[in-house]
Automatic annotation (TrEMBL):
<dbReference type="InterPro" id="IPR050811">
    <property type="entry name" value="Phosphate_ABC_transporter"/>
</dbReference>
<keyword id="KW-0472">Membrane</keyword>
<keyword id="KW-0564">Palmitate</keyword>
<comment type="similarity">
    <text>Belongs to the PstS family.</text>
</comment>
<feature type="signal peptide">
    <location>
        <begin position="1"/>
        <end position="20"/>
    </location>
</feature>
<comment type="function">
    <text>Involved in the system for phosphate transport across the cytoplasmic membrane.</text>
</comment>
<comment type="function">
    <text>Part of the ABC transporter complex PstSACB involved in phosphate import.</text>
</comment>
<protein>
    <recommendedName>
        <fullName>Phosphate-binding protein</fullName>
    </recommendedName>
</protein>
<keyword id="KW-0813">Transport</keyword>
<keyword id="KW-1003">Cell membrane</keyword>
<feature type="domain" description="PBP">
    <location>
        <begin position="40"/>
        <end position="277"/>
    </location>
</feature>
<dbReference type="InterPro" id="IPR024370">
    <property type="entry name" value="PBP_domain"/>
</dbReference>
<dbReference type="Pfam" id="PF12849">
    <property type="entry name" value="PBP_like_2"/>
</dbReference>
<keyword id="KW-0592">Phosphate transport</keyword>
<comment type="subunit">
    <text>The complex is composed of two ATP-binding proteins (PstB), two transmembrane proteins (PstC and PstA) and a solute-binding protein (PstS).</text>
</comment>
<keyword id="KW-0449">Lipoprotein</keyword>
<keyword id="KW-0732">Signal</keyword>
């Protein structure tokens, strides 16, 4: 009888050992580390939000990037808005609850850098693509399809002396030109004013708008309208607008992903600019999803750029950004 009890006890102990082994020896997916340096399931799962605002020009690029990222990381919400570069920096550079990224179609200004230092915010600039400032006209405008750099800029200058198309070419219609563009909230406005127009005043008749979609609509309905904005908005509205081919001294150049990316005289270089996103490095250190999204953005920047109307950056520029971000881990 005693031997039977011992046998029963051994059987029960054996069952318990097998059960313990099946449960992984007491370890669970909630532990922070498996003991051999490998991340657990919980640690590998990202969650939370990433908040981005800023440039309307960069918006199509970043919106596509966010969509792609969330398709692979369902527990992370990436919110992308487009207040404009300058308005975006105001939301980015605040003491509390600022955005994680600010997209920009210009470099950060000295006063914005000073404000970041005052607030103790570490800011890092990343180029994400190349854009070409594009001048668009109505589809019915078949006379101003080619202009020199000087001619197209004169239309927007207060001192340009151009009010009618015939002021540029006497064979063109003697009708009033309707110049348009994005307003001062946008880095594109500042690029036009500071770089292209050399900080000379806009003509009084210029119609400056907050929304790029409004500009597309206005130009598509007025044969005497001409507007400027990033190439991507033209590329996605080719059925409604035509682009001016600009002669920089070596013959007319059509804006395109190929010509925007060229460094030589055959390209669109005088009207080409880099576009950026600015990262709050402190947020990247505190929130894993922000750092992960930053790395994902740079790893996929070249593909998304080409898909959204931007010329991709060179490999070395991309790799330098990725190396910096990997160093924050």
């Amino acid at each position: 009888m005693k031997s039977f009890k011992n046998l029963a006890l051994l059987i029960v102990m054996g069952i318990l050992v097998v059960f313990a082994a099946a449960c992984g020896g007491g370890e669970t997916a909630e532990e922070t580390n498996t003991g051999n340096g490998e991340a657990t399931e919980e640690e590998a799962t990202l969650e939370g939000s990433v908040v981005i605002d800023g440039s309307g020009t960069v918006y199509p690029f970043m919106a596509r990037m966010a969509e792609n990222y969330m398709g692979e990381n369902e527990e992370v919400s990436v919110e992308v808005s487009r207040a404009g570069t300058s308005a975006g920096f105001e939301k980015f550079l605040v003491a509390e609850n600022g955005t994680d990224f600010n997209d920009a179609s210009r470099h950060i200004k000295d006063e914005e850098t000073a404000k970041a230092e005052e607030l103790g915010i570490e800011v890092k600039e990343f180029q994400v693509a190349l854009d070409g400032l594009t001048f668009v006209i109505n589809k019915e405008n078949d006379w101003a399809t080619e202009m020199t750099q000087e001619e197209v800029v004169k239309i927007f200058l207060a001192e340009g002396g151009v009010t009618k198309w015939s002021d540029i070419n006497p064979e063109w219609p003697a009708e009033e030109i309707k110049p348009m563009g994005p307003n001062e909230n946008h880095g594109t406005n500042e690029f036009m004013f500071e770089t292209i127009m050399e900080e000379k005043d806009f003509v009084d008749s210029v119609n400056l708008q907050q929304e790029y979609s409004t500009l597309v609509d206005l130009v598509s309905k007025d044969k005497n309208a001409i507007a400027f904005f990033g190439y991507g908005y033209y590329d996605s509205n080719k059925d409604k607008l035509s682009a001016v081919n600009v002669d920089f001294g070596n013959g007319p150049v059509a804006p395109s992903l190929d010509t925007i990316g060229l460094d030589d005289e055959a390209g669109y270089k005088p009207f080409t600019r880099p576009v950026f996103t600015y990262l709050n490095v402190d947020m990247a250190k505190e929130k894993p999803q922000v750092l992960d999204y930053a790395i994902y953005t740079m790893e996929n920047a070249q593909d998304v750029a080409a898909e959204t109307g931007f010329a991709p950056l060179k490999d070395e520029v991309i790799q330098e950004s990725i190396s910096f971000l990997e160093g924050l881990k």
